Amino acid sequence: MKIYRFPKSRSLKVLWTLEELGSDFESVKVDLLAKDSPLRSPHPFGKVPYLIEGDVSVSETLAICIYLCERSNNSSLYPTDIETKANVNAWLSFAMTDLEASIWGLLKQLVFVPEVKRSPDVVHYFTNEANRAISQLSINENTLWIACNEFTLADIFMSQILQWAKICGLMLPVTVNDYLEKTLNRTTYRKAVEQNDAP
Ligand SMILES: N[C@@H](CCC(=O)N[C@@H](CS)C(=O)NCC(=O)O)C(=O)O
User: Rounded to two decimals, what is the model's pTM?
Assistant: First the structure.
């Protein structure tokens, strides 16, 4: 199984999932910037992450992570019990819609758009939207992780988006920040970062 990756990109979530599952894989670093390089990702639009396993190819980070969980015998990362899975899906959806839409919009303005082209109105709009979504995030202190007592895909996706929020300079409530730190203390996370950012 080959995973196409790029340092400091969304492919980190896939490598983290693989570390949690203890699955074997080969990671291939691509060149995201040079579109006609032989090192381009085989993704139809040259993006990462991308997975190829035999005749199967999967795009979209969440779809890849779910594929990895469902092909393994480990059901704690993406539970099969429908009630717990509904809770995991709810957190995944919240992370990828309410949180990611605004935080990614802000991150693009602050990190990728050159300062001369940056729009203060757009920055202001996304900052408000992001803060509103963050204020709707309540960590249930009765469970060990965000969706249940097991560490799940929802924690991987929440952790990554909360890291982006911090890069944007957004303030996180103490309980949310403590939760983020707990996710980042996992050995699997550190191994995944090493793999994803390897030259
Ligand atoms: N919705 C896709 C987004 C994939 C994506 O845009 N990946 C970025 C890296 S984080 C990329 O490959 N950008 C290069 C490009 O758009 O050409 C997913 O969640 O996997």
Answer: 0.96
